[in-house]
Amino acid sequence: MSTANYGDIIEVTAPADFHVHLRDGELSRLVTPHVHEGGFYLAYVMPNLVPPITTTEMAIEYKKRLKEYSGSFKVEFLMTLYLSDALHPNDVKNWKAAGIVGVKSYPRGVTTNSDEGIESYDKYDELFKAMEVHGIVLNLHGEIPSDHSKNICVLNAEERFLPVLANLANKYPKLRIVLEHATTAAAINAVKACGDNVACTITAHHLSLTVDDWAGQSFHFCKPVAKFPDDRRALQEAIKSGNKKFFLGSDSAPHPSLSKSTATATSGCAAGVYTSPILLPLVAHLLDSFGAVDRLADFTSNFGRGFYQIPADSDAPRVFVEKVQGVSVQAEYSSEGKTVVPFWANRQIEWQIVNIKE
Question: Which of 26, 37, 247, 277 has its CA 20 to 30 A from that of 66?
Fold first, then answer.
């Protein structure tokens, strides 16, 4: 398929977002229902709260809160732990029964709430071996901290991380590893070069943005930052090719609108792009724009579920999206004094959810 025609309808079985931030407290109460509003029935939840989710008990309690906030919506929440010294190899065998599917690695200081992040993977050797045995996934934020003495900054931090990915993939060949939110052609090629134990998430917003879009526009600023047009094209081509290593992880990251819109002389604006409430129509719109809308079901459900070994049930919900003349994205979402602004606020999306069969 090149591009769809108005009136065309595409069906996706149990859409799954394999990387989403749902925050905590009143902000979480506001944004958690947006997973379902955006057309999704599975949310792979990031652990970088304050304090971070580092124990089974914390993950269980967090999941309870998310289920409460989601109300009657039938969303499956898969939980992750924050890679730190608090994780012990002897505990890994109990994680799946508690609903914990992965461990998220944050290099220290590279993104939101990563001050407790790691500086070296070597000391986690026994933990990673236990994760291999028990089928727990390692999720990598694929950047290294900026170091101007080594000419490392946000524009090349991802590419400089890629040898670390290759080393981990070779050292732990039975450990399933996901390079999260790839932004560069180099990252796409690195994932392709690894074995079947390595996959990669791609966000919706990185299929749209380049450097020009976030330079001076705080609501497009995220970590990792969007890169160059050739990099964006590489992400698009990875999806268009139908390579099952690449699937959706939205990295939808809500922040109060004031912290997104405001920078001071001593601190920058918050990093994160919020896509959850419009996610499936947005992805359809973007894939349609580069001739890959026929990959929608694979990218937003089949490939990710395949890698995580979480197939949709035979009676799983089916979501139908239709190409339309244009639907305006809501300007903001507010509740209990919290306000968030979605990606593409006030812009038009040419796809919308028209039916859900549960």
Answer: 247
Where do the domains of the chain lie, and which CATH numbers do they carry? 19-274 (3.20.20.140)
Return the percentage of the chain with pLDDT > 90, whole number.
Answer: 93
Is the CA virtual torsion 342, 346, 351, 352 positive or negative?
positive
Query: Tell me: the pLDDT tens digits for 282-302?
Result: 999 999 999 999 999 999 999
Q: Please give the structure tokens belonging to residue 330.
A: 């809501």
pTM value is 0.96
Cis before 51 (ω within 30): yes
E strand intervals along 92-222: 100-105, 137-141, 177-180, 198-202
Sheet holding 9-13, edge to edge: 9-13, 318-328, 348-357
Which band of pLDDT confidence, cut at 50, 70 and 90, is reported for residue 107? confident
Amino acid letter, residue 209: L
Q: What is the pLDDT of residues 159-190, one digit of tens each?
A: 999 999 999 999 999 999 999 999 999 999 99
Q: What is the DSSP pairing of strand 338-340 with strand 333-335?
A: antiparallel
98 backbone φψ class: left, alpha, beta (φ>0; ψ -120 to 50): alpha
HSE-CB at 80 with a 13 A cutoff on CA atoms is: 27
